[in-house]
Amino acid sequence: MLLLLSSASGISAADEVRLAWNAVNDSRVANYEVHYGTASETYYAKVRVTTPSATVSGLEGGSHYFFATRACTSDGKLCSDFSNEVNVDMPAAAHSASGVVTMSGAADAPSARPTASATADNTLARTRTAIEMGEASTARSARPTRVAAENTLAATDPAIEIGEAEINQEWQRIEFQREFKDPVVVVKSLSSYDTEPAIVRVDAIDADGFSIRVQEWDSLDDAHDLETVSYLVMERGRHQLSNGAQVEAGSLITGTTQAFQRHTFTAAFEDAPVIFATVVSFNESDAVTARLHAIESDGFDVGLREQEANSQRHLPERVDFIAWEASTGVVDGMQYEVGRTGRNVDHDAHNLVYQTAFVRSPVLVADMQTTHGDDTAALRWKNLNVESVALRVQEEGSRDRETTHVLEDVGYFVADVE
């Protein structure tokens, strides 16, 4: 494939570039994916097009970006290898990007690498907003108002959406119910309808939605019954809620496996916040989850974990996180509670009783705040109701049958619309 990066006629914005490449002559090709990021061969975002050219917008002025493209079938399950990579420096001020870079790369036909498809057969068909409590055709969701720009403290509550969906091992698409410019998505903790150890995988986040599936650990057959999962979406940046609570939504790239790397907040919190972190790319097909460690007011450690039988080497992935000060209140019509269990959750069910009185079962996002146990594990829940939920740590058994886990501290977000 020939990938040509150039300025497009009439483009005068500093936040976009136009890419063009030779079309792939293969009847199976239905669209192209342009992947990009700020580090070479480490892509955290992508756009899909049906023609051999694309305009990528929303780029940060003064940053250096890397791009590669590939051809895919209509369902996105078969894709070619990536083209050779091209890169460009974005201008710091609004003027045309200039220059032509030509690079070649093999992309003759799609290969059998799974990517996110855009189906929604099992999406839970309930929507809730602060104004309207009716039935709708997408995921259960709450839609507050728009916020200020990235890395500023919002005078009002940030752009936020919570949702709940039923998913299995098939990729399906979740469409946002409100407008986002640069969304950060966290999805952590599965229900327990199928007892096989599994995690949630997220991919293909854009301004309109994201793709999601259940993924069992590699030693299993990856056929999984429907599970219920909740997601939390927020506009990227630092925000101050109307009740004074501080929240930061961001991303990082890491390939650190069986170890940790440090990430620093844009500004320190008064106290260590509760953090929810999710792997939101699918650069490697091996099952992987993000674990947290050493959460402090100024930052946290994060690392990837594959199943224990693996060599613990994984390609870099994008990890989205939301750091939220422990608090209760109402965020633009949505009653919420953010807190910690303390070091009380292990392989046995721990009953978490909310401090907030809900009138219906809330949505739940929960994540381990510690890594006291070295064994690869994920958080599962059951018996979610208006007063409480049962949480447990589930280890995978690829290396041995021992699945007892030491006590961990779990952070949680529960919310509903008043």
Describe it for me?
There is one protein chain. Helices cover 0% and strands 44% of the residues. The protein is mainly beta and 418 residues long. It has a four-stranded antiparallel β-sheet with strand order 5-2-1-8, with no helix packed on it. The radius of gyration is 21 Å and the shape is globular.
Spell out the blueprint of helices and strands.
Blueprint: E1 2-6, E2 17-21, E3 31-37, E4 45-49, E5 53-56, E6 64-72, E7 86-89, E8 101-104, E9 140-142, E10 160-167, E11 172-175, E12 183-186, E13 198-206, E14 209-216, E15 227-235, E16 237-240, E17 246-254, E18 261-264, E19 274-279, E20 289-296, E21 299-305, E22 317-324, E23 327-331, E24 334-345, E25 350-353, E26 363-368, E27 377-382, E28 388-395, E29 408-417
Antiparallel strand pairs: 1-2, 1-8, 2-5, 3-4, 3-6, 6-7, 9-10, 10-15, 11-14, 12-15, 13-14, 16-17, 17-22, 18-21, 19-22, 20-21, 23-24, 24-29, 25-28, 26-29, 27-28
CA radius of gyration is 21 Å
The low-confidence parts are 2-12, 94-109, 111-155
Query: How many DSSP H or I helices?
Result: 0
* Biggest sheet features: 4 strands, antiparallel
Can you tell me the overall shape?
A: globular
Summarize the structure.
This protein is mostly beta strands and 418 residues long.
Features:
418 residues, mainly beta, four-stranded antiparallel sheet, 0% helix, 44% strand, globular, disordered N terminus
